[in-house]
Every structure is written in structure tokens, then in C-alpha cells.
Amino acid sequence: MTAALPEKDATIQRALEFIRRNRPLRAEEVCRDYLRDHPGSADHMRLLSLALVKQQRVREAEEQLRFALQIEPDFPQLHEDLGSVLALQNRNDEAIPAFERAMQLQPTLPAVERKLGQALLAAGRPDEAQKYLQDYAEKDPERAEIFRSIDLRRSGKEDEAIELFREVLRKNPNSVNAMRHLAECYWRGKQQHDDAEALLRRATTVAPDYTMAWQTLGRLMLDMNRYVEAIEAFESATRLEPDNADLWSGLANAYGRAMKSDKAAVAYEKSLAIRGDAPGVLAGYAWELKTLGRQEEALEAYRRSIRLNPKHGPAYWSMANLKIFKFRDDEVDVMLHQLDSDELAEVDNIHIRFALGKAMEDRKDYDKAWHYYHTGNQRQRHTVNHEPLDFEKRMQAVRATFDEELMTSRAGVGFEAPDPIFIVGLPRSGSTLVEQILASHSQVEGTAELPVLGRIAESVGRYRNDDTRYPEAVRDLRDRDLRAYGQEYIEQSCRFRVTDRPFFTDKLPNNFPMVGFARLILPNAKIINARRHPFDSCLGAYKQLFGAGQNFTYDMLDLAHYYQQYDAMMRHWHAVLPGQVLDVHYEETVTDLEGQVRRILEHCGLAFEASCIRFHETERAVNTASSEQVRQPIYTSGLGKWRRYEEHLDLWKEQLADIVSELPEVVRNAGLPGSTS
Asked: Taking the CA of residue 355 as centre, how many other CA atoms within 13 Å lie in the half-sphere pointing to its CB?
């Protein structure tokens, strides 16, 4: 019969088991119960501090460790733990001597050199940090090879780094550190996302408690627009390290991208409870508050972000992006002052210029507004890639593939589900208004800008040996392939839905080139094209600094060319799919709301409901730049805004004249004195 453990050892084992099972409150209870009768047990105080850290009670953990050190000042692990707790609070200057004392007392502590090196780096002492990190690496040959590979990658020698990581894995196939870093190379350097994912999933299988692998996997999934899997990865990471602010903000970002704004806000709050002085996290939190309609709280979070970092350009632009918000004079003065600073980073400069454009527009100083919008766009254009001729060739290939013969011969063979209502168009053309009208109907769920259709289209032909890809590869699909793709779309879309309403919107303006593909795989889906006067559409995009994508919007000629391609594509769909795509002009909706609502509902096979006219009363998260406008009753002040900037728009007038001449009269005349607007 096994002898019972002494009480001290038994309680330590119980507390450790509770911590391993992520039950820190129970571990705290065990430690406090023991300390009540044995108040001098430094081991229990140390475990208690760990349980407190797991509950994000970092200050209390620090107090416990300092008290324990008064009793046992030469306990090296207590000094190491104190350094870790101080580093969690970004008090690296205080953490450094704690780590140094731990090393003096026990030079063989396995991780203290790494922690000391990281604290020195965070404190701005890189030369000293390098010595400790190097010593830490050299004590383990495999670790040394990984550090050398990381150095090669940082110096731009990507191929050499990859080969060295592979060599580590040849020697030790279960080296999860090598897997993670090699995955970073494949992802960031080589754009081999599938290989990167395979390595990270293998790492998390070999070491399910490897937090960094889960975090990297979450970031990769976000980059691939696979939001549900990103959430799963970050949730795994936060379970392992619930006191890590970066993991909570990563989870919040994933929730936000998946249009789960309520959960995103909660995750941001957990991150800020751990580290409340992170301007970027505050700005992300504010965005989700804005999406939820909590405007005053969002504004306060943005302003708090700016107080922490007056140079944080994205926060100023995010405030401007509230649309119905107006900057105070003192805030405008701060932005102007920041532009004069030689220390302002380019990304912050660009964001502040767009924010100043909005501020000057609110003051009705349209020439100054144009100056800041225009110079902001000129700077942003240098940071993004967009090849107009490549885009035009892709559009020509789409039209050539989805011709009348294909659309007629394969009509009706796809998956029969009638659930989706696709809303396409261009950014800033009224698609959010159409979506909000439909989402106000009792039979329709408003979802998000779903990445599903594009992802499926890009997968067509991926494994063909002759390099034929989408769109040309669509011609070789069998009827059952089209049905399978339609079913896959419905199944993937379900992951973004939260209600059991029979229909749902998929509003992604840039899906307009995929209307034909959507029609083939889902013949009963409805398609709506949101349109607006070309000058207002282009101007709205030119005034918008997008978080990602839409790279065509930062140059006036690029915008005009893109609009021409969009117009040609929609004409093509009307020709090969007669009567199957409904054009909804923003100007006609604003001036005849009920008439256009009835048109939209009739096209979708839905009965008229008055709630669709009162769309602004519908409570739902709206994750676009138009989120505030669609929470207001219909207004006409947005019609013909381009006329305020008319003297700057000669290029668009020249390039888009033919398109403008064919617009309905109410669209052409919007904004003119005496027009119906």
C-alpha cells in the first residue's frame, strides 16, 4: 500500500493539478487553506502567485512574491517569478534585477537567461540582451541552430534559414520550435500558406500546450480569411495562457472579423484588463463598440488611445470613420501639429491626412479637405500593389468564360438552395443600405462580408496538372461538381450565421466578377447590384482609407479604370442573365424609399414588410464604414456630394462620361438645386 504524502507535498500536488486543468481559483483556495495554518510556506506563496496570475490578478501576485522573498530572500525561483510578474506589467526595468538575482543564486535555472534577455530587449538595451539570449541558445545545440536560422531570416537570407530549419527537423522531427519558425518562413516569405498551416497543425498536435504555435496558427488563419478556425486557435491559446494580453486581443480580432462583435468586445476588455496602455488594442476595441452602436464608449476608447500615443494615426482616422462624428478644434490642432513632426511614421501620416480631410469637410472647407484626401491617397498608393492591366485581363477572361452559351446550357444544374441573397457593386455605393433593408425583414438574416464565394472560386482547378485555373477551369466542371460547390458554399456560410431565418445576405461588393459563378452553383440565389453615380462612388472610395484590400481606390485614374471594368462586367451579366440581376440605384432608393424597397423584396420573392422601410430601427452589428449612416433614417444630404469637389474631378468626367450619360435622370441630377433630391 502506497504511503500517504505529507500534507505539504499533497497540497502542492493538488494545487499544481488544478493549475494544469486551468482551474486557478481552486488552486488559490488550496494554497490559502494551507497558508492559514502554515503562513511561512514560500512554496505555497509561490503557487498562490501563479494562481493569481492565471486569474489576471497580477498586482496581488506581485504582493505575494514580495512577501515570500522577505521570508526566503535567497529562493531563486521566487526572484524569477517576480521578474516574470513585473514583465507582465511592462515594468521591465524592475524585472531585470529580479532575473539577475535569480541567476546569481542559481545559474542553471533553465529559462531565466531567456527571460532576462527579453526584458533587456523590451527595456531598450539590445546589446546586453544579445549576450544573454546567445548564452541561452548555446546551452542547447538545437536551440542554437534555431536562433541562427532566425538571424539568417532577419538578415534577408530566407532560403538559407529554411534549409537550416529543415535540417533541425531532419535531426528531430518533433522540434515544435523549428516547425513554428519554418511555418513563418513559408507564410510570410514564400506565401506557401498550405505548407505553413500543415507545420503549425503538426506542432499543436505534438505539443498541444505550445501557446506560440496556436497563436501563429490563429494569425495565419486570419490572413487566409478563415475566421472560425482563427477563433478556435486563439481560444486554445487563451486557455493555455489566460493572462496573456496579446492572445486576448488576437482572439478579439478574430471574433471581429467573423462579425461576432459582442464577443470581440468582451475579448478586448480582457486584453485591456491585463494591459490597458495599448493604443492599438484600444482602437480595435473602439471599432467593435462602434459596430455594436455604442458610439460614446467607442469615442472615449479612441480618445484614450490618442492620449496614450498622440502619433497613433489609425485612431484619428477611426474617429473620423464614425462619419456622424466631428473633431473638436483642439483635436484638429493636434493632428496638424503631428503632420509637422519629423518623427511621424508614414502609416500615421497617411491616417492623419485622411482624418484631416474629414475634419475640413465638416468645416465645409472643401479645397483643404481635397488637399488632405488627395495627398493621403498619393502616399498610400506607394504602399499597395494594384496592376490595372492585370485586372482588366482577368475581367476579360471572366466574360469570355461565362458567355451566353455556358450560362444557358448549364442553367439550373447547381445546388437548389434559395438561401443566399448576393449584394455586389463597388465600395461606398449603397450596398450596406440594401443589406440593412433586407436584414430588417423577418425572413432574412444579415450576415457579413463573407469570404466564402471567392475562396471556392479560387479553388476551382487548383489541382489540375495543366495549370488551368479559375475562371477557365469552370468550363470543364461537371453538373455534379457545380452542385457540390453550391452545397459547399451553403455549408461554409452556415458557420457565419446565428439565426434560422430561411434567407441570408452575402454583401461583398467585390464579388461582382463572380455573379456568373454564383448563378451556376446556386441557381436559385438572388443577386442585387448596388449602384451610385460614378463620381459619388469614386469619391466615396477616394475619401476612404480601407483597412485592407481595395488597392484600386488610391489613385484617380485607377479608380476610373476600375469603374469602367465594373460597368462592363455588369453589362455582361445583364446580357447573359437577362432579368436575373437587379440594379438598385442609391439615388432612387433615397428619393423613393418605399418604391425601391418593394422592388428589392419582389426580386427576392419576399412579402412586403414595413420594417424594411424603418431599417434604421433594426438592431444588428454593422461592420462597415457605413455603419452609422444605416442607423439613421433616410436622408438626402448624401446625394451629389461630388459637386462640392467638382473642380478637382476633370479626370473622372473625361473617363466616365459615356457611363454617366446613360444613367437615369434622377441619378444624373442628384444634388442639383431643384432636383427631386
From this structure: 29
